[in-house]
Amino acid sequence: MNASNPGALTSSLLYLDGVSVSFDGFKAIRGLSLTIEPGEMRAIIGPNGAGKTTMMDIITGKTKPDVGTVMFGGSIDLTKLDEAAIANLGIGRKFQKPTVFDFHTIEDNILLALKAPRSVAKTLFWKTAAAQAKRIDDILGIIKLGDARDRLAGSLSHGQKQWLEIGMLLAQDPKLLLVDEPAAGMTDGETAETAVLLKEIAKDHSVIVVEHDMGFIRELGVKVTVLHEGSVLAEGPLDVVSANERVVEVYLGR
Amino acid sequence: MRIVSCLLRMIALATLLALQPGVASAQGADEAFTRLGADSFSDTNRAIELLIVNAHPQAAAIIEALAAGRLLAGAGAVVIKTTDGKILDARTGSALAAEPAGLAPVRLNNGVRRTIQGALGGLGLLNPDPAKRISAAEAVFKSRDVALLPVLEGAIAKETDAKAKAALRQAQAAILVAKSDAPPFDRIAAIDVLRERGDQDALATLRSLPADSSPALKEAQGRAVSAIEGKLALWRAGQNLWYGLSLGSVLLLAAIGLAITFGVMGVINMAHGEMVMLGAYTTFIVQEVIRTRFPGLFDYSLLIAVPLAFMVAGLVGIAIERGVIRFLYGRPLETLLATWGISLILQQAVRTAFGPTNREVGAPNFMSGAVEIGQLAITWNRLWIIVFAGLVFAALLAILKLTPIGLQMRAVTQNRRMASAMGIRTGRVDALTFGLGSGVAGLAGVALSQIDNVSPNLGQSYIIDSFMVVVFGGVGNLWGTLISAMTLGVANKLLEPYAGAVLGKIALLVFIILFIQKRPRGLFALKGRAVEA
Amino acid sequence: MISRFLLQNMDKRGYAFLAIVAAIGILVPLLNLAVPAGSPLHVPTSTMSLWGKYLCYALLAISLDLVWGYCGILSLGHGAFFALGGYAMGMYLMRQIGSRGTYGNPILPDFMVFLNWQELPWYWYGFSSFPFAMLMVLLAPGLLAFIFGWFAFRSRVTGVYLSIITQALTYALLLAFFRNDMGFGGNNGLTDFKDILGFNVQAQATRAALFSMTCVMLIAGFLIARGIVVSKLGKVVIAIRDAESRTRFLGYRVDRFKLFVFTVSACMAGVAGALYVPQVGIINPSEFAPANSIETVIWVAVGGRGTLVGAALGAVVVNYAKTVFTSGFMAPYWLFALGALFVFVTIFMPKGILGTAQQLWEKRRKPAPTATPEPAPAE
Amino acid sequence: MSVNTTRRVILGAALAGATVLGSWLPASAQETIKVGILHSLSGTMAISETTLKDVMLMLIDEQNKKGGVLGKKLEAVVVDPASNWPLFAEKARELITKDKVSAVFGCWTSVSRKSVLPVFKELNSILFYPVQYEGEESERNVFYTGAAPNQQAIPAVDYLAKEEKVQRWVLAGTDYVYPRTTNKILEAYLKSKGVKQEDILINYTPFGHSDWQTIVSDIKKFGTAGKKTAVVSTINGDANVPFYKELGNQGIKATDIPVVAFSVGEEELAGIDTKPLLGHLAAWNYFQSVKTPENDAFIKQWKAYKKNDKAVTNDPMEAHVIGFAMWVKAVEKAKSFDPDKVIDALPGIEAPNLTGGISKMLPNHHITKPVLIGEIKADGQFDVVSKTGLVAGDAWSKELDGSKDLVGDWVEKKCGNFNVKTGKCGGA
């Protein structure tokens, strides 16, 4: 499962083409096409109902598209796989609402996410090796929760939970990270720190960030895709996109 | 013995027809009265025959009184007690001053009742009331008493009412088919009449054709039998469908309250069955009061019980919601435990208050008996229960969709916090919603009291089926509950003739288990992102 | 390695539990057999078999706690696995009767003779062998749980839907086992047992041995369940309970984990049933009654779910209360007491006896409580 | 007091209460002789068994007014096995070992009897079982005061065949051992009387079956084949009410297709409007409507005891009356409460039944009883239309292959399943 797979149909890490899906007649995604290159960080913006979360659901296997192609690493058809298989391919996801395991300690949360065999037998007789313990320590350091490692995750503040979740993503060591509104509900200071953290992560991972906060996106300084009514409205650097008449129209209303 | 008695009766009827009273032997009549006082069924049977043979002037009155249990006998005296309490001497029909001592009602058993039926049937063929003539003809149809053939023929000749005439002809045909010495042409015609009638009884009568009949007759009989059987098979499918709908309506009634408390509110209400039971006991109390205080109102007892049962079960429901369930919102599985406890308490409370045995809930007149539509037997109580289930369903739908409280209920169940922010008193709405669900269960109790035991265990027998119905239909969807109840009811009844009651039910349970795998949220599940989050 | 697996991170509570069960398992039979009946220290056989029953229930409760308390699968059909284990044992015991039945038929059990059955149904073959029967004690419930779970968990049936179809499962089995044509003795079930492994089941020594065996199995069941929940697999399972789809996005095949725990739990329930039958002396379809399974859930809730020890405690406490209340002047009113207990526990002690006790203990130790997360959302 | 302390106090009190109760129970007066009453007071069987508990309490009360037995007062020990079969065994053990009762009166369903049987054998005590049952049993420690199949089913079928000229039979029952066995016996019996296979319809339904539409219409259909048809019902308690309601509504009259039931008595009819059921039959060894001085006295006593003028009596109650009288006589004859001596004394003991005869305990531990056939009257009582002389209860049915050679004899052979062909005890 190497990104430079010889049988690859495309050199892109993630390749969506002509994807559509509807719920009870409502077309949430219509003809969406999107390409993410290895090592790229991409921001996705769009008004409510533009299909941002549904797009993530499709990539991670939660929702199956009605039509369209979703390829990962050039040759793997994601529409044929379930969530766990996709996660094991190396696609990590952070949810809009931070979802951590409330009744586990922070350390256990990271341990569960840590890249390791996921089978029943392997987990039943699991023993944490020294290297893995060190990796956990490192991640706890990065997300600044090293001192709180024995606290239950449920007792963390909202911002801390966001960070813990990012830490869990790091522990998974995925090839592609899907990050849904990482700055939601954060203070300005936290938002800034999160941006720094994401940029750090983007150095050796591909990242898709869905965000509402324009300031945050500006801080990330990456290519932006604007979704509207389930398809791509515009793509390019933030300045170019925000000058686009249609984007302005969509955001400000007609 | 039987032939002799028939012959005697034929003669007697002939005399009756001739309207010549007073010629009978006094001796035979005396014997009849002695026998009536003997307290033996065979003596009573013989006495009836003697009365008829001797054409006793009081025969009709005596036999009617006997049938109604108003004939008293013993110690040489036989008297008739009239419905208004007068005492008449059975021999003469003259009034007596006082009831002689030591008399007891003449007892009946099935044999005596059949003799009475036959006797009254013979007498009734000439009754001026066409309805009575029809039922008399039916009685003759069943008894196939050859002795009555001449009387029947006489009656047919005189008959003017078309329906009565048809009934009399059928009775005649029933006798002719089995009568080997009748003209073959008449017998073939009789077979046609029976084929026309085309019901189970006609089939039975046709099958009574003697085995030594002529080939022509046998062929005609064979054709008639297969024609009737083919028709009956169709009717039977219809009948099974009706049974299925009827069972479905019972399931719907039992489950629809649960569709509210469980489906809409998410409370796993194990005490739901006990709400049904409370409704049934309310019906019982209403009937008890009516029986002792206002016997005239009995036919309205269920109508009176309906609002009361709704209130009783509803108030108990509100009490449960306020007292227990409101502490448990968001913990659906814990409501299961608490309501299970409540159900134990309610069961034992009813057991303590009313005793552990079944209580009698009577059926008002309009719910007794059956009506025949073609070969479809529709029992009134089932028909009314279907109607009632439909009404309850419609009313519930209307409450939820059309009234402000319904709107509030839907708002609270969809988004409690938002509803609360908009000024809806969520506590009050919760209590009312739970009360509504429980009240509807109480209504189900009124209906179930008509077909099932009214005992402390009543609720237990419906709770699992109710959950199956709601889950199969899709939680939170009243229409789903309706379709699911009807589907399960009909499927159950269509399976039953082939698989038997037990295997049919097991098959359905397995089907539900498999179905839930296919559609984990039931028949009518909401789709989309919101539900799965 | 196995002992490491079983004893890792054992806490005080666990050791206390093990010590108590072990002590009971040794002392009670000893006090029953070795101490003369007149002595105040003597444990009567009736008390011993009563407690044997409680301990079987305790094992059943632990098996349920494993799936409910840790994995969030509220099974309302665990009684079915218990009963299947019981039937497997019952069938062995029936075959052991041999020609000592009332009709003296060497092969057919009495109820078959008396309904004119001519030969043994195929599914009764092999049950005359103890090892085979013991294998079936594990396999029958285990296989049923595996097949049922295979479908249900793959289809992602969760929450109340799962609870209701487990109830449907046990209800269907109840109806099936009531049928005399099934060949399991219908409503009368299997009873009037004579020997187990050549020892008279009625004999005091056999009862004592069965009692000790129950204690051993309870300890084994507890250790296995605990081994599972403290392992990383246990952490995954708890993660599934609290946030199933999140766990899936971490790459865990949720259905397989659930299936594993569910099957292990069903086997454990089967063992409990198998130990229950010779001590109680009868197995009948009413063990499949949905009410029995619900009651098991209640033991776990009363004791404290997600604690294992609490589940066992709950089973013993509720059943002891039942024994006490169903005799004497309370007899007509015991259902009130039982019902009230369930309502009381769910409202005032949502964490059960053990959870509440623990909370009180912690509060006393450190007066300023750390924020504890809200109870798990809808399962 | 903070909430938590309150909680703790309540908990403590509850636990203390339980302990006190536990220790309080066994302590009682020394001079009395205890009699165990093992009937379900809750659960599904409470509907039938609760009155039996009351009857026993009344009988014991009466006996004490007469001065008790052997100069000692009797004391009833009531337990509630809650319609739970294993609990029956547990409670039986408790009664015998903890309360040291001299005899136990109890059980209703076959399975409850089967469940307690090993306990009574092991601890060597006495059980009086008051309900009609499927037979095929004769145990040293059990005395069967209810009817065996030959004391109920066969005379009822004879009556229908003779008086009603029935030629076609529907055997409808609940799917458990009693109906299965009874129907097996009846099927064999009817065939021996020349009834053809196609004239017998056997149907089983689950416990508590409530939707009888299909089955009743099947019966109706079966009944229109040109021969007189009757239904022999071994339908169990709870399912009867909906069954009879459906019969009434579908218009099946007793004059067309009579139904004779073996499990429907006054108690069950009290829950049904009986007007549409006029003339349907039941076969028992006792009816409340039987006019004898003994019965009148008993009914009066019962109504006074229940303080209810509408209280009804039924067959199993009479069985307890007979059984209790027999036990008292046997104790007096043995001059001891020792189970072994009482068991030996019981066969041969005679006690008056309430229908004007004297019942006798037989060596097979069953009793002699008359068989009464009653037709349902509009007031929920039965009109006795036939009564046999005393019939001896057969422990083993002569109609079944497996048991036709077996007899129970605890007097001479000291064996419950003596094979007269092989001359050996133990069935084979």
UniProtKB/TrEMBL annotation, chain A:
SMART domains: AAA (SM00382). One of its GO terms (molecular function) is ATP hydrolysis activity. Residues 14-254 form the ABC transporter domain. This is Urea ABC transporter ATP-binding protein. Keywords: ATP-binding, Nucleotide-binding, Transport. It holds the Pfam family BCA_ABC_TP_C. It comes from the Bacteria.
From TrEMBL, chain C:
It is found in: Cell membrane. The keyword rRNA-binding does not apply. This is Amino acid ABC transporter permease. One of its GO terms (molecular function) is branched-chain amino acid transmembrane transporter activity. It holds the Pfam family BPD_transp_2. Keywords: Cell membrane, Membrane, Transmembrane, Transmembrane helix. The chain crosses the membrane at residues 15-38, 50-70, 76-94, 130-153, 160-178, 208-225, 257-277, 297-321, 333-354. Its main location: membrane. It is a multi-pass membrane protein. It comes from Bosea vaviloviae. GO terms for cellular component: plasma membrane.
